Amino acid sequence: MTVRTPDPDPDGDDFAFDGAPGDTNPGWLSDIELEEARRRLPMLYVEAIPVRTDGSGQVTSIGALLRSTPLGEMTRTIVSGRVRYGESIRDALFRHIENDLGPMAFPQLPPSPDPFTVAEYFPIPGVSAYHDDRQHAVSLAFVVPVTGTCEPRQDALEVTWFSPEEAASDALSAEMEGGRGTLLRHALAHLGLLR
Asked: DSSP secondary structure string, 143-163?
């Protein structure tokens, strides 16, 4: 039995996955649809911890984004975003890295990326180490080497590069939102850098 994706509607209701204005994109929800979905379903996310490596592939620095909350608080976070319907994990990672770090970041994604962990965010604090007021979310977390220039975009103010020792510090962990300090430590442990 052959299974295939449906063909675009011949009546002109074709869709695109680029999210350009005017396109009907089944992979993107309106604000109302998203709010309703968040009340009923776990949302799938990808998260990327950008790293710089030396010539031998050893991690020399770890990137974190500086953001301002709607209340004016400064927090640190990592590259993160939803996976769209019909979008591969690899494409979602690439899209969010480009959105947050700019088109010249040049992420080094393998053909088939494997997460170092799966983080589960809950709207109720204390259920897990990860918290998101808006939703229950399941996130695939990746370490991604970047080789280019990182210029923050979207709502990030800057990308700060930390040594592995600085990234493991309690001070940085306290600045990170939603338990992402724990996620960062998981990444450092996965890389053999947590001492």
From this structure: EEEB-S-----TTEEEEEEE-
